[in-house]
């Protein structure tokens, strides 16, 4: 094949890829043998598509071409063989052995015999060379890394691994250039030719008196377009992928496409099928707005997640009859009238949620209704006037029989679910809930406590990360995205799937529907930092951009829809808040003041077309949209999490902020306080609280009322909603006493440490045990939360499992039902190797694998890896020179942190097990550690921050640099710390002391909020000196923990059901409470 013919193949490959003919692209790659698509190969290997893998490889090499090729095919077939053995499918394994692996016997007969002998083993991991074989996913990953090295070294793949550097749409450009030339040769060329075919040469019909335009002005003679766009043939050129013109905002993003081509990613002079070339060539540099747009025909006014207008003012044009528009002096929608004093900074109330807040949204019509979703799957509606929870729903699958097998299996194993996102529909008649397992629920709201099930959708495989309402084609829809890397659009009336958008290569983190110039589109962001944009069609993504810092990002428009912002945090903890220049698809300005070591992902919101706010570094931070410097920060009385959820109301006069003690704090400015006082002085009807929206609801499947304000929402990550207060003449008056600056006394702010001194003040249970009683050295719940594993000082492991029975039909760990002490039928005990150690002096530690199949354990000597089903040892590693006292893995950082008896911390890379860093603990002032004091380590949920536990202190470190962020030292009266651990949500830290007490700290601030004395869980016995040695937190119940005692006992502790949690966090100004013995277990202030 000639060089030009070869190049033509590459042009065809590019064209097919741009047109999304995926299968055809890879078939041509394989048949031509010109380009080996490594990404496609990686996907097939990762998914275990072995036949397709070998078929694709066959276009480039054969088994016996060279030693590299032989090794490639052998590794693939060996992996296929081992997977069959792992599934206990021996018939399949024998078939692979005979058909696929026997060919290698001629080259290495001994190896083939050894492979054959694996059939005789119950578990092929018993073979020493395969003992480190993990699960299927990890094994494929390891093999893939090896295959890539072999392919890159194989001379047959030389010059086939890189695609030629072509401008986008090169084949189209060449064709258009040809058409330009053909048109120039026409005897009577028309100014705007209508070219409808490529099958014959182009000629123009002879018009009466027409003259050929000069080559200089001929619109077909333009230069080759920038960034792969098309030369301006006309509105009816041969390559017009979609009949609608892109909005200037989206077309601008396409002016600088990424290196990954997309079929409609060109932004040349005509954009996509532009109806007017001249208009497109003069497109404005900033987005345009049309205040007079007829919303009934634009069918895009209700596109975003919260009730905000785009191209309209913030006001509701025609408020419903039952909406009371409260006017405040000095209140204006003009930007120029706003100052930083307009920001809501005064705490007026705190709502006790009971579990960690994950998402919030104000009602789009009723300003005093707040929708909240939590990490325990609860959804509730708060009425801020009375501070009452007027409606709530717990997670429950409505129709388990219609769910997929995968979801049913997941729920059977673990029914706990977190809310990822809550959002009201534009009219407030509905709200949507995205859960951490597959499901989206749509509820209809009829005022007061009347919540009704409307629609259940199994939307995605795994997490549903975000959802938003939109109105494509005048039909109310909900847009969802998830862990399965897909965006989907669903009809809200029927639950029918309307569109599926694929193209992201990582889980999709957020969606942001919007409209510009009568065109509706969706921005989506993924956890790998990619931003894409989609029209409601099947043409693929129009944009492929990198978010700043490759961060997990959310996007939101200002209230009037003219300015686009994004905020996100990358894996290194660096956060970015930026405004985008839509006409160029580039960052216009970056705002300063966000943390460089953020815990979690920073969430943000916008208000009044003027201000931005973000929850970061235990604060709420504000910016003026036109100034990159930080405008103001507030602590909101402290106890905020590292990255709190925040939410403005529509007018920006109220702000909801999540707290670290499972609450929601409501802040207000002067207008907000006046609003709440106005509400207080009026009568109110809770049963009709949403009457403005519910009184005459539109059909769920049709276009809503034109007087509803529409806009965007990104949940706890988005702009605020339009909100007015619905009032009715009723006899019930609001009992609301907002906290305002001039209040001298507010009883709710008088904080006191929670003391639990009696068994009647909490729930506790001692686990049954018929084995030899020796002190408990280590204790852990399994990842499922259905069992507890204890390691005793004699190196023996004990395992308790909760079973299904009449008292425990849901099979959960609880202090109300005793579990069963479990042993395998063989009677073998899991026992660590202590041959080289003194068992009395040995310090034990262990860690569980993610699927509860293996436990890595040590009792002061060698590290053992046990199979949790057979209790067999897999491998042993050498530890520290001095005894090891703690181990912690970070799956995100790929490191193991170990702690030793010499108060040292070490960071190890899990790939090559090389030491990356080490550091000695900082001792609190005036204290000295014992020569061989134990040090334990545990990672925060973010897998970035490390809890370090020492007898003298609790400390928080940044891994893997080992930088100390906070430190807390107990008062000496309680004795040394014996152990500590995070709660499952990393919001609390449970700390045990030598005097038998247990303290509960707020994790973010390291402040003591509850003290549980020994008498609360042990019967009084002065002759016995028993105290906790270890403490373990339940993996899904944040208020349940277990204690392992010096007498060998294991106790489960939970707060009373009526309380729901262990105390409340102290406000910042109160420190950690009074300076009496009630806080003997902790100092008032954490040290920085």
UniProtKB/TrEMBL annotation:
Residues 1055-1088 are annotated as: Disordered. Gene3D superfamilies: YVTN repeat-like/Quinoprotein amine dehydrogenase (2.130.10.10). WD repeats lie at residues 457-500, 602-633, 877-918. PROSITE patterns: CTLH (PS50897), LISH (PS50896), WD_REPEATS_1 (PS00678), WD_REPEATS_2 (PS50082), WD_REPEATS_REGION (PS50294). Residues 1065-1088 have a biased composition (Polar residues). Pfam families: LisH_TPL, TPR1-like_2nd, WD40, zf_topless. The keyword Cytoplasm does not apply. Keywords: Repeat, WD repeat. It comes from the Eukaryota. One of its GO terms (biological process) is regulation of DNA-templated transcription. Residues 34-92 form the CTLH domain. Transmembrane segments: none annotated. The keyword Cytoplasm does not apply. This is CTLH domain-containing protein. The lineage of its organism: Eukaryota, Viridiplantae, Streptophyta, Embryophyta, Tracheophyta.
